[in-house]
Design a protein that fits this description.
The chain starts with a helix and ends with a helix. By secondary structure, the protein is α+β, with helices and mostly antiparallel strands. It comes from Metapseudomonas boanensis. This is SRPBCC family protein. Keywords: Membrane, Transmembrane, Transmembrane helix.
């Protein structure tokens, strides 16, 4: 994560009211919206086939409204939309940037969800529309208001899903995955004012020529996981310990045995590893490709089941010691293993990676401290 994004997130989180409750926020929006939907739907009676055409027409109208408001008020500073512009471009697009789209705690929903009062204001407009349309046709009024409110709730739900971790089961649902990618592209600085303004269904983007797609290599060919932990030791010490592959079994639950040189491994080193990851045993042959002391270490591997793997360690100096970031990218060549990874293995590997960060912190702090003590008192 870039220092600018991390600094903004820290400032934004510090400004959230201590009593803010994300579950109350999201729960109110859904409960209030559901109550209004029940009210509108209760007015339906003997809907005729022609009356059902209101639904696709209202969906098109909602898609146009979503597009127009997002583009013209969310990304253009105007007197009318000053508050929305600040909240959207100023806050949301500073908190989430391309490549850093995942929220880290439920309190981060504050910068994802609309203010809770907005659905009340939106529903008041719908009640007025329902009242006026009911003079013409009660079913038309109910279908229009129901569809528009369902669109609002869908926007809230889809937007939240588009900021879930890539490893979350919901993120792997085909349409959610597709819209997550479009939304991430929208968060690129060079695209956010011109492309991908629809978040639920990109109808208006397609019609207006602002739909932009660019495949993500990691999504199309590799599974990518990134985890970080703060360790109260300096970056040189932390990376030296983490890049000593023979010590991996001490802290990574998937590593069973490592055969290779001892000590931190420089670029060009080779080693072998027996693993049990994602519920399957295997063997990896590793080659270290990059090593910058205290900053960066990278290695690639080939293994059983057609496994290809890229592992990167990055260290950043912080006030309390080191922020350690581990990025794992892997893929299988066979279709059966790719399917097993999609359905089962990636969740297990992600849990193992999370656990490895906890173990790394504990072991690195302990081992480095023991080493320093021995150096101070060789006897």
């Amino acid at each position: 994560m870039s220092p600018d994004t991390r600094a903004f997130r820290a400032r934004y989180r510090a400004g959230i009211h201590p009593l803010y409750n994300a579950w109350l926020h999201g729960g109110f929006v859904l409960a209030y919206g559901a109550a209004c939907l029940v009210f509108f739907i209760s007015g339906l009676e003997n809907v005729k086939p022609l009356e059902w055409l209101v639904v696709p027409l209202a969906l098109m109208f909602f898609s146009w409204g979503e597009y127009a408001i997002h583009k013209n008020l969310g990304h253009k500073k105007t007197r009318l939309g000053a508050m929305f512009y600040k909240r959207h471009t100023g806050d949301h697009h500073s908190f989430f940037v391309a490549g850093q789209m995942t929220y880290e705690s439920t309190r981060d929903w504050r910068v994802i969800l609309f203010p809770a009062w907005l659905i009340v204001l939106f529903s008041l407009g719908l009640f007025v529309a329902w009242w006026l349309l009911s003079f013409l046709n009660a079913n038309t009024a109910a279908l229009f208001s129901t569809t528009m409110l369902a669109g609002y709730l869908s926007y809230e739900v889809f937007h939240a899903c588009e900021h879930l971790p890539a490893s979350h089961p919901i993120s792997r649902l085909p349409w959610i995955r597709h819209m997550r990618r479009l939304h991430e592209l929208h968060h690129r600085r060079d695209l956010m004012q011109t492309h991908n303004f629809n978040l639920v269904f990109p109808l208006m983007d397609w019609l207006r020529g602002s739909l932009y797609w660019e495949p993500l290599e990691q999504e199309s060919s590799m599974t990518r996981m990134q985890h970080e932990v703060e360790i109260t030791r300096n970056p040189d010490q932390v990376l030296a310990y983490a890049s000593t592959a023979t010590r991996w079994p001490e802290w990574h639950p998937s590593s069973l045995r490592v055969d290779g040189p001892s000590g931190p491994l420089p670029a060009g080193s080779h080693f072998e590893e027996d693993i049990h990851a994602g519920g399957r045993a295997g063997h990896l042959s590793w080659d270290v490709t990059e090593h910058s002391s205290g900053r960066h270490w990278c290695a690639s591997a080939h293994g059983t089941h057609g496994l290809e793997l890229l592992l990167t360690y990055e260290c950043e100096k912080i006030d309390t010691g080191t922020r350690f970031v581990r990025t794992l990218e892997y893929r299988f060549s066979g279709r059966l293993m790719r399917l097993a990874n999609l359905l089962v293995m990636r969740r297990k590997i992600d849990r193992e990676s999370v656990e490895s960060m906890k173990q790394l912190k504990e072991m690195a702090e302990r081992v480095i401290e023991q080493t320093l003590i021995r150096q101070r008192d060789p006897a």
